[in-house]
Amino acid sequence: MKRQIVPELMLVLCTVIWGGTFLAVKVALSSASPWLIVSLRFALAGLIFVPFFLRSSQSIDRRSLLHGLILGILLMAGFGLQTLGLQFVSPSRSAFLTETLALIVPLLSFFIQRKLPTRYNLAGAALVVGGLFLITSPGGLFAPNRGDYLTLGCAIAFSVYIILVDIWSTPTNALALSLVQSFVVAVASLPFVFLEGIRLAQNFSFVLALLYLAIPGTFVVILLQMRYQPLATPARAGVIFALEPVFAMLFAVATNLEDFASRAALGAAIAFTGVAVSETGAILKRRLVTVFKQHN
After folding, report:
1. What is the DSSP track for 269-289?
2. pTM above 0.85, yes or no
3. Which residues contact residue 275 at a Cβ distance below 8 angstroms, ignoring those fewer than 6 apart?
4. What is the rounded distance in angstroms from the CA atom of residue 219 to the CA atom of residue 237?
5. Using CA atoms, how far apart are residues 141 and 144, in angstroms rounded to an integer?
6. Is 207 in a helix, a strand, or coil?
7. Per-block mean pLDDT, blocks of 10 residues, the chain (296 long)
8. Cα(162)–Cα(18) distance, rounded to whole angstroms?
């Protein structure tokens, strides 16, 4: 039982940390341009990976290099499409559309891996998406524009990333994959850095925000994801990761960036219920059946 719970708890920790990155990005954007933040974030994370990788027994062979390159490109595509989409849609609508990956991952997982999600995974994903709708309150969902399609492309890129991590990542190559993909994103971001124009005003708040984005927000979460996500199914991971806007809202309320709203609170409760259904539905059913048989 403990072996089943630990991976999910580590993925929840990743999601909590990601929730805090919204606040960190907001602070960093007041001092630097978006793509410069992305490039610096992943470059710093890659540099942190280097000493850990050198101390390990892992090596970067052709397969690790290729897989890390593909994972890095998918991360880059996700960030890029999301950034482009934000030019046409609101942040709340972007967050909602991005986290539809909770529904996309099980479908892609079936076609790529032939892994059929359980009814509890699907029910949980539907509840999470419903909860996120209440939290983000995206308007005009029935009048899609270019930004919607770009953001859905972002969700697909992140969904494929989740599935490929499940297929490729093992304890013997997790550091190698983490190192390669971090530097791929850092380098691939550079053309966009120069295209949008470099803006950087160094101050203490920016340094703190960048450190949060690079260390817990990238180094820690990539390492945890590479290590623990393959121990869960992609469908379960997708549902857990979709809680990111929930934790982002909690961070925003805690730091007085947003006011507490009963609609958002209800959405958070529904989203957490969705995760509970996805994670424990089958276990609860078995226990109920056992109890029923004991009393008959």
Report:
1. HHHHHHHHHHHHHHHHHHHHH
2. no
3. 124, 128, 239, 240, 243
4. 19
5. 6
6. helix
7. 74 90 84 90 96 92 95 92 79 76 84 78 82 70 76 92 92 93 95 90 90 95 92 83 81 74 79 75 58 57
8. 15
